[in-house]
Each structure stands twice: as C-alpha cells, then as structure tokens.
Write a structure and sequence with these properties.
The structure is a single chain. α5 packs across α9 and α5 (about 120-135) crosses α10. The protein has 3 domains: about 10-155 and about 170-265, no CATH class; about 290-430, Mog1/PsbP, alpha/beta/alpha sandwich (Protein Transport Mog1p, Chain A, 3-Layer(aba) Sandwich); about 440-490, Membrane-bound Lytic Murein Transglycosylase D, Chain A, CATH 3.10.350.10. It has helices at about 40-55, 65-75, 85, 110-115, 120-135, 140-145, 155-160, 165-170, 185-200, 205-225, 225-230, 235-240, 245-255, 270-275, 340-350, 415-425, 430-435, 450-455, 465-470, and strands at about 10-15, 90-95, 100-105, 105-110, 150-155, 280, 290, 295, 300-305, 310-315, 320, 325-335, 365, 370-380, 385-395, 400-410, 425, 440-445, 485-490. It is built from 19 helices and 19 strands. By secondary structure, the protein is α+β, with helices and mostly antiparallel strands. The two termini are about 20 Å apart. It is globular. Strands 10-11-12-16-15-14-13 form a 7-stranded antiparallel beta sheet, with helices on both faces. It has a 4-stranded antiparallel beta sheet with strand order 7-8-9-17.
Length: about 500
C-alpha cells in the first residue's frame, strides 16, 4: 500500500472488462491488410493507462525497463498493426503479480513478477508477442466496448452485491484488466507471438520454455500458500490458463517455423545484464507482506491477520482472503478537528454507497496507545445478509487507518476482528529500518557450486532451493556448469 492511499477512503477500480473474440481462431491477423489503431481506441487506452498504473503500483523505471520497452517494440512492428513502433506503448509494472496483458489501443503491460522468472530476451519476446497478438486479433474489443463508461465501483461493494467477480479479484486491484480469454484466443495469440518473435530474430522455442516456467511458478505458489489460497492468487495462469498440452503445442508451433533449436538468438547474457539489481518482491514504498504479516517501513505501521488468511498488497489497500471474512486495510487523512465518528461514517459511505443499511453506534476504545473506534452494519445481499465491521484508528501526523471486515451474518468472526484489529501497531525507527528490500543478483557459477549451495544465499527463510530452481528454469537436482550465469535474490 502506497502512502498516497491515505488520500482515499474507498478502494475503487475501473470496470473496463476485456475479452471477446472478433476474429476466428483460425484467422491469421497478419494475412489481413494492416490494421489501424482507431482514434477512439487510442483515446480509451490513454484514459485507462493512469488507472492501470495506479492499480499495479505504477511504472517501474529500474533495471529491466529499457529491455522490456525495446523488445516490446521489436515484436510489435512484426505484427499486423500499422505503425506499431509508434502506436504501441509498452510498460513494466511495479508489482510482484506474475502477469502480462494488453488493452485495445496497443498498450502492453509486463510485471516485475513475471520478468523475474524469465531467463532470456527470447522468453520476453514470446510473452510480449503473445500480448500484442491479442491486440492484433482484437480479442478484447467487444467486451471492452460493452463495459466502457461504467465508472468506478468499490471492491467491497462488489462483495456486498454478491458478484461472482470477487472470486477473481481476491482483493487484488486491477484484475478486471486481465480477464480470461478463450482457449482458441490463447492459441491464436500463442501462434501470433511465435510468428512475431521469429520475425524479430528470436528463438521460437523459448515460447514453450516460459510457459513451462509459468507452470512451475504456479505450482510453487500453490505449495507455499496452500491450495485454497493459491487458487485465489491473481497471476498469469489465471488469465492465460496453462496446460501441458499448451506447452507441447508451443514447441510444435516453434518447429513448424522451420527454425532449428538454437538457430536464432536468445540473448540470455543481455537479459541477465538487464535485470541485475532489479527490485524483487514488494516495493518498500508499498510495504512488505510476509506470510500473514504486513509491515510498512515508510509509514511505520504493522499488523497481522490470523493463520489461514492470505495477504495481498495492492497499490491502494492491503486485503486478506482465505477465511470466513474478507478483510481490507487502508487509510485516509484525519486532521485534529476530525472525529473518528465522521471518519467511520465516510468509510461506510464509501463501502455501502446508497445502501439504506445503517451501522450501529460507534464504540470507542484504545488499541496499542492509539485512539480507536468500531461500528458494524448489516446489509442484505443477493447471497444473504452480510455484516460489515469497520475499525478505525487515529495515527500520528493527521493520518487515519482502518480495517473493513465483511462476513456472512450467520458466522461469528469476532475473533478474527479482534485479533487483526488489535495487532495494528506503530513501528519504532529500528523496526522500520530492519525492513529491507530484495533485489535480483546475477552470479557466475564457480567450480564446485551446486544449486543447493547457491540457493542458500537466497534472502528467504523458506523454500530457498525451490525458488532458485523456478526463477532459473531448472529441474530438480540440476547440474550447474562453472562460468554460467544464474539469478538469486538478495537483500538490497
């Protein structure tokens, strides 16, 4: 959660939704005459762009950024989009989410999380080519047009109305930008991506490699977090379903190009040089999630949720799912003249909107030395009654913070509310300073080095070897060659 989130009392996102097919799965986009990006597509994309940046932590401008933009342009100009070099905007997003997506108008997005598990420029060209393929084939146009103009909607309001989208959102902002495509659309974009990357001089067999890495990453997330929680994690595999058949198909399509393995460039050394020093994991400006704990070194705050809940750190809020309650944490300005009563009233207004439900009287208390207050409302929804509980705090420096808990009215979540709300606390200067960022470090394998020995340098308390294998696309018990490059994650 960024400091700017203190300015907003609700958690809002655009409801532009992507994904209907307008060309048949067998249609070759490049066989048609060059397609112009329309003025309306450009205008809509330009309007959506700032919202996407806000929802995904902003644009990342550190190591790796120039490479992503360059290769994005290289594959785009091989597409059927007229003047793609000037029409397409490629952005590296500052988020740990493993994803890539594009919107009409040829705005293409790659996340730090996805870039970190690649191992060559060819793999990057494959993914960016795939996303350009969605734009080229106009897969997103119909659903996007139908959703334009819908305005902003509170995520918690979505919960309260019983919308099925909450299962996809899972508390993570920005997932409406990455809705699933059909299998045929995915296959068509795979084919187009392979065509573009090959035309740009990149080894097409890298397409299958990155698909395999994405599957391995998904499996590791499932293992680390548990099956139920991992199923809610927004990722590339949520919006681009992975199967063994799809990986095999990508290899077959690469062979169909007539290119032999290793014949075209992979440029792994250039990739390693580009990502060396790239931020890995949470940005300190947005705070750190470690299991069920959250801590922010800049705001000097911390809290934790009960075991079994999965925390997701968004740009405007921190959310927790996996239990019987939906939990969201955010903040807003609270000057000396403002009361916690009015603060809570504003929060409920942001959540309930015009809903006629009324919350009960505000109860005041003190939590960890801070003035605090709580109130609850019962709301009728399509899926039954829901209780909405708000716990607000008066923090130092004119800042307020609050939790929102949403749960079925017939379920007692008082222990979750009490445990979570009473864990919120101020960090000392020393505690805040101890929270350190992580970065990718490219190292050269020395004689005698093994995956096990190198992985022990990873800046994690658990799953060190497993993380090392996934981010370097290695099978179990790999043989490392002296002189080759591998990635590890260290404290910056």
């Amino acid at each position: 959660m960024r400091k700017e989130a203190q300015q907003a009392l609700g958690i809002a996102l655009s409801t532009m939704v992507l994904g209907a097919c307008v060309t048949g799965p067998g249609t070759s986009a490049s066989a048609q005459k060059p397609r112009q990006i329309s003025a309306s597509e450009r205008a809509q994309a330009a309007q959506a762009h700032p919202e996407i940046l806000a929802e995904f932590g902003g644009a990342y401008e550190g190591p790796g950024t120039a490479m992503v933009k360059r290769i994005g342009k290289e594959v785009a100009v091989r597409s059927n989009i007229a003047s793609a070099e000037n029409e397409c905007t490629v952005t590296l997003l500052n988020t740990t989410v493993v994803n890539a997506f594009a919107i009409p108008g040829c705005y293409v997005y790659m996340t730090r999380g996805l870039l970190s598990i690649m191992n060559s420029e060819a793999e990057l060209a494959s993914v960016l080519g795939h996303e350009v393929g969605h734009v080229d084939a106009q897969h997103s146009k119909k659903r996007q047009n139908a959703a334009l103009g819908s305005g902003l909607v509170s995520i918690l309001a979505t919960v309260l109305t019983g919308s099925s989208q909450i299962g996809q959102l899972a508390g993570q902002l920005g997932q409406v930008w990455t809705m699933k495509y059909s299998r045929d659309q995915e296959y068509q974009s795979d084919d187009l991506g392979i065509r573009y990357m090959t035309a740009a001089g990149y080894d097409p067999y890298a397409a299958a490699d990155i698909l395999q890495s994405l599957g391995d990453q998904e499996a590791l997330e499932t293992r680390i977090r548990g099956q139920n929680e991992a199923a809610q994690i927004p990722s590339w595999a949520r919006s681009h379903p992975l199967t063994a058949a799809r990986v095999k198909r990508a290899s077959q399509k690469a062979a169909a190009t007539g290119v032999k393995p290793g014949q075209l460039k992979r440029d792994a050394p250039d990739y390693y040089a580009a990502v060396n020093g790239m931020l890995y994991g949470d940005d300190p400006a947005q705070g750190f999630v470690e299991g069920h704990k959250f801590a922010h070194p800049v705001l000097k705050i911390a809290f934790e949720v009960p075991q079994g809940y999965y925390l997701s750190n968004g740009a405007a809020a921190v959310t927790a799912t996996g239990g019987q309650a939906q939990i969201q944490f955010s903040g807003a300005k609270l000057s000396d003249g403002d009361s916690l009563d009015s603060y809570i009233s504003n929060v409920f207004q942001g959540v309930l909107g015009n809903n006629k439900a009324r919350y009960t009287g505000v109860q005041r208390t003190t939590i960890n030395g801070m003035d605090a207050a709580t109130a609850t409302a019962r709301v009728a929804t399509q899926n039954g009654n829901r209780d909405v509980t708000v716990v607000a705090y008066r923090f130092d420096g004119g800042n307020g913070y609050h939790f929102i808990f949403v749960s079925p009215s017939n379920v007692n979540v008082s222990n979750v509310v009490n445990t979570t709300s009473r864990s919120f606390r101020k960090l000392t200067d020393a505690q805040a300073a101890a929270l350190r960022k992580r970065v990718i470090q490219v190292v050269t394998v020395k004689p005698g080095d093994t995956a096990q020995s190198i992985s022990q340098r990873m800046a994690f308390d658990s799953y060190k070897l497993e993380r090392f294998l996934v981010m370097n696309n290695r099978e179990a018990n790999p043989t490392l060659r002296a002189g080759e490059k591998v990635k590890i994650v260290v404290y910056g």
